[in-house]
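Onboarding guide, step 5: your first structure request.
Type a short instruction followed by the sequence, for example:

Predict the 3D structure of this protein.
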Amino acid sequence: MAGPLDGLVVIDASWGMPAAISTMMLADYGARVIKVERPGGGPDSTANVRKSTDRGKWSTEADPNTDAGRAAIRGLIENADVFVESFGVGKADALGLGYDELHAEFPELVYVSVTGYGNVGPTRRVLATRHCSTPASDRWPSRPGTAKAPSSWATRPCRTAPRSSPRSAS
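The system replies with structure tokens like these:
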């Protein structure tokens, strides 16, 4: 049965949960989502959660750090309606896959850049996929671009084993 997004083509060149869940929902509603995998998988390719968020997606391999990989991604973008990336602040521009360059070539393309804490501010280079929010100190931004926040939040590395309560992290 066709969904409301039937006919929409999405290129998903992201990694990490926020973009994976977003593109999974687009696939659930009928979009054709093509996941661009790093050759050999990637940092989260064997995670069960990642496997569940890849449901309904097509898959191809391309390394955006090589000329051939970037050419393959551009070839996919030529026929796409949406491009989703989570390369990190400034990385897409350095690869020639940033908004300005792609918009000049494909003005109808919807460009989605998923970053943990925005493109500006003191936490812009923090990878949200590598941290969990836990109560602790004054290092958690209350809004993008701010350094000070409520004293009850901080970022700490996630543990792979579940705890009894996410707020009990030490």
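Each response can be followed by summary notes, for example: The chain has a mean pLDDT of 77.
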